[in-house]
Amino acid sequence: MSDQLDPMTTREAVELYLEDRKPEVSESTIQAHGYRLSHFIRWCEGEGGIENLNDLTGRDLMQYKNWRRDDGGLNNVTMHTQLSTLRVFIKWCERVDAVERGLHDKITLPSLSRNEDRREVMLTAEAAHALLAFLRQFEFATRTHALIEVLWHTGMRIGAAHGLDLEDYDRDEQCLQLHHRPETDTRLKNKEAGERFASMSAEVCDVLDAYIEVNRYDRTDDYGREPLFTSKHGRPAKTTLRDSIYGATRPCTYAQGCPHDRDPETCEAMDRNRASKCPSSVSPHAIRRGSITHHLSKDVPEKVVSDRMNVSLDILEKHYDRRGEREKAEQRRGYLDNL
């Protein structure tokens, strides 16, 4: 151990690290890093026997990597994500003199094959149209209906929808304005760079108008703001909105029967707040991925989709575009035939 290092426990370091990163990253990123690093705390305080981070070595990090893979049964992609976060954390520890300089370089990340880290789950256009048809007929203008209409037609993230205020909706211009408001606990993933206008169709605006008029609770949040999507108590938590998405996207809710041959009477996914246990229910991000793919499939230019969905072109290509190569070729043919 170097005399230049300041003694610090893993738990203390993680708490300081998360606090230091708060002004730089979104709340969801802080939560994700906190979750991933909680395993490192558990190992250090248990099997690793690391009471002072000053004593941490490259061999310890290798042992933690092996323990994490065996303990969690994690695949390459998840291990890559977990260890990437750990590398960022250890590099931060170097800056505050908690570990030896260069220690983060001793964390080796699993090699990923091309496209191995691409996420595949999305709400297909076919499923989205069936879901929206059901909601428009049987749950018209409920909060969940209005939220799914907005998510599908704009492709925005759930965090952006959660932060919308009533005044951000302009019926005359048929658009929503997205703001980064960290001082009142509603942030955009890309901060000020994520601020934009999201145009909507007249049909989606009709749903929002009816929701506001009939089903929206007239409430303010803890900062006196008027949320667009409300609960009886004000601005609902993002987890509440996420749960409602999982519930609405269970196929047995809007389609004909269960594709997994489960009995609704005994299915665990029918219990309160357990809809995510359904193999076919999807998260809000799967709606975003499906929306982006649908826009691209309808020949909306990639630059337009990039700006509308607030996603860089390289990330759009790698993580969101789910068109097959044949579909892309046929779309290119449409542009090239007249040359």
What is the number of independent domains?
Answer: 2
Low-confidence stretches: 114-118
CATH architecture of the largest domain: Orthogonal Bundle
Indicate the CATH topology of the largest domain.
hpI Integrase, Chain A
Helix content: 40-55%
The number of helical runs is 14
Based on CA atoms alone, the radius of gyration comes out at: 23 Å
Terminal CA distance reads 69 Å
Mean pLDDT rating = 87
Characterise the protein shown here.
- It is a single chain.
- The chain is mainly α and 339 residues long.
- It folds into two domains: 97 residues, Tyrosine recombinase, N-terminal domain (DNA polymerase, domain 1, Orthogonal Bundle); 166 residues, Intergrase catalytic core (hpI Integrase, Chain A, Orthogonal Bundle).
- Strands 1-2-3 form a three-stranded antiparallel sheet, with no helix packed on it.
